[in-house]
Amino acid sequence: YILLSKMNCEETLDNQTEQAIYSSVQNASNKKSINTIIGILQMICGVVALSTGIGLIFERDNISTISATGIWSSVFFFISGCLSIGSSRNSNSCLVISTMVMSIFSAISAGVLVIMAGLDLDH
């Protein structure tokens, strides 16, 4: 009876270990795919901001034309998108931290972009 209970405990531990390893591998692949999706979305936001920034250059009476908010904010979107895609492929701690910092800069520039667009609605 003691030998059977030891074998059952070892089998239970092996099953739990297998499940823990499987769930950690599955979580790692989910994080990689989420980082890739976030990077692609940031790149799309960069394309939209750049195209509208270039389109607003041809409009004369516009605050965004003077400050070129769409153009410089798209640079932050492109850099943070590339870093996010890169960190999904290689999870170096320096790359992950730089991705977070550039994502914060992208969020700040997006806020400035929204404020400038709100000011342009007056014209």
Provide structural commentary:
Helix 3 runs antiparallel to helix 4. This protein starts with a helix and ends with a helix. Helix content is 89%, strand content 0%. It is built from 4 helices and no strands. By secondary structure, it is mostly helical. The longest helix is centred in the N-terminal third of the chain and has 56 residues, at 2-57. It is elongated and about 50 Å long.
Cα shape: elongated
The count of β-strands is 0
- Summed over residues and divided by their number, the pLDDT gives a mean of 76
* Total number of helices: 4
Q: Roughly what fraction of the amino acids lie in strands? A: under 5%
The biggest sheet amounts to: none
Helix/strand order, N-terminal first: HHHH
The rounded distance between the terminal residues' Cα atoms is 86 Å
**Low-pLDDT residue intervals, each spanning 5 or more residues:** 1-11
Describe the structure concisely.
This protein is mainly α. It is 89% helix and 0% strand. Helix 1 (2-57) packs antiparallel against helix 3 (69-89) and helix 3 (69-89) packs antiparallel against helix 4 (93-120).
